Give the backbone structure.
Amino acid sequence: MSDQPLLQARGVRKSFGKTEVLKGIDLEVRQGQVVSLIGASGSGKTTFLRCVNLLEEHDGGEILLDGDPVGYRMEGGRRRRLSEARVSAQRARIGMVFQQFNLFPHLTAEENVMLGLTKVLGKGRAEAREIASGWLARVGLAERRAHYPYQLSGGQQQRVAMARAVAMEPRLLLFDEVTSALDPELVAEVLGVMQDLAASGQTMLVVSHEMLFVREVSHHVVFMDQGRVAQEGTPAEVFENPASERLRSFLGRFHGLLGGRAE
Amino acid sequence: MIDYHFDWGVISRNADNLVNALLLGLGLAVVSLAIGCVIGLVTAYARVSGRIWLSAPMRAYVEFIRCTPLLLLIFFVYFGLPEFDITFLDKTESFILTLSLYAGAYMSEVFRAGLASIPKQYVEAAKAIGLRPWQRQRYVVLPVMFRITLPSVSNNLISLFKDTSLAAAIAIPELTFTARQINANTFRVMEVWLTASAMYLVTCYTIATLLRLIERRYASIR
Amino acid sequence: MFDTSMQPGTFLFEAWQARWSLMSGLGVTMSSSVLTIIIATIIGTIFGVALSYGWWWLRALIRLYVDLLRGIPVLVLILFTYYGLALFGINVPAFWAGVIALSAFATAHVAENLRGAVQSVPAGQMEAAKAIGLRFGQRLRYVIVPQAFRRMLPPWVNTGLEVVKGTTLLSVIGVVELLLSTQQVVARNYLIIDFYLLATVMYLVINLIIAQLGALLERRFSYLRY
């Protein structure tokens, strides 16, 4: 079964009260792929990402990670919610980087990375420290190991958050608009780390408004509109041949950024 | 387990007493809060004046009151003042004096924080239209400060009302004292204390609700 | 008034005479305070966590308890407990009746403060803790509680001060703590001002020490900013 997608979503639905945010999402992410979700705000991208990591429970359809349903198990044809411990174990296989960094303010950069390694993966402190400093060096923060989050810039905090997520060696890494809360001059350093991770073969599912990055780095681009997948394909297909008026007008906003190639 | 037969007749026979006692406590709290607000306002201005000889003693007063048990203060004033030949205060006046000094310290803290939280732009705008210093305080700073501090003032009123129960210790016939007397005379322990507790609770939450309504009227100003 | 010679009727002489009664009063004040603070901190923490994360019926129950206890004067709680326990044939010494009542009061405050502190930790912290796979207990222990603790401190220290001051109310049910032992001494020697001042100073010292310790702890956690 080497052909089995790492993440497979089938008809995923999610409502908040009366508003249906996801109206049946089908999506696949294969081992080593970078898949980007684009679309206007409110199109359901972030909600889908949160469903994958069980920060929200989807109401219908299924999300399979390596063939196992996420958050539920089937028992006699009915969905049964998994126990707290099983859910946590599933989450540990999926990493997530947030828009607001969400570093733990009472821990240093290194301790932020070490927490999951020691408490979830059960590694010893010495080993965890070694892994943590390795990843902090990889994101260019070797000498900031002992700093607390408030002593770091936004871009540095976001790089620590990425080290924290990737150090867990997740099967899949989720990025939720990770550059949206950053000052413009700090965006590049964060995107650089993401590019580096993608090049190393990390499987990634990315929600982003950085169209240039999406176009350069993704293997597959998914355009979401009003809770549905409106178009998907390679970056070239999506960016060169937008099938719908809505995708055209969405991309139109980024023309300048795409190198003025639209004329 | 002993079986206890409730006899609420005790309460209905003493209803007048209890209600009067409650009103007395409420009165003590309101009067003390009013005097305490004046003390608090004056000391708060002294503390933000930037003059150390004014602010230091006022800070000491606030810290002293905050760290001293109210019951001790009550006894100190009640038994201590006559030692200085100050004998014209009866026990109720002596209690009001104590509770006012006590409230003053807490209100000082509230008003100081309120004064500190007023945005500078207001004062600058007031300067810009040519208001003189006392006019800036009277028409800009104070009205804003009172709206900011209103929730804390209402919390203090509720605390003070609960604190009036300590007046029982010098035999002022407020609710706790009255309840204790009925308890001693009839030994209907449960009825008496359940009633007293309920009366305190209802009064506290009534005050809280009423004051929240007033707060909401001014909520448009932040 | 502040005659410093060691004659009967002078403050120093009478204070020396009364030293053991006052020390024992101080001991009762301290022990009842410490007991109350320990009990209230333990139960209040459990209640506070339940108030934040419990099932709805548990939250409603504890909310009711907290709101009831905060609307009744401590003195009434003490008198009610003292007379009430005796009525049900539970013969506890006045000291314990007082400690129970004070603890019930302080528990409500600790629980409410903890709930507020937990609520003030941004939601993203819980999500980030989930995202790295920590289980519920681990999320509380390693992420939420250390952050909530910092915000808990000032109100917790305040509750401590309230408890120390509140122990004076035990004098009303005959517990010979510092205030009542002072009154007993004064009843013998009539040095009202001197001995009330002495008691005041003792309370001031205890409370200033508590406040100082609180400030010290707060500084220890000053790295916690957002």
Observations:
- Residues 124 and 130 of chain C are 10 Å apart (CA to CA).
- The longest helix of chain C spans residues 19-53.
- Chain C has nine helices and no strands.
- The interface with chain A takes residues 122, 124-125, 127-136, 138, 142-143, 146-147, 150, 221, 223-226 of chain C (CB under 8 Å).
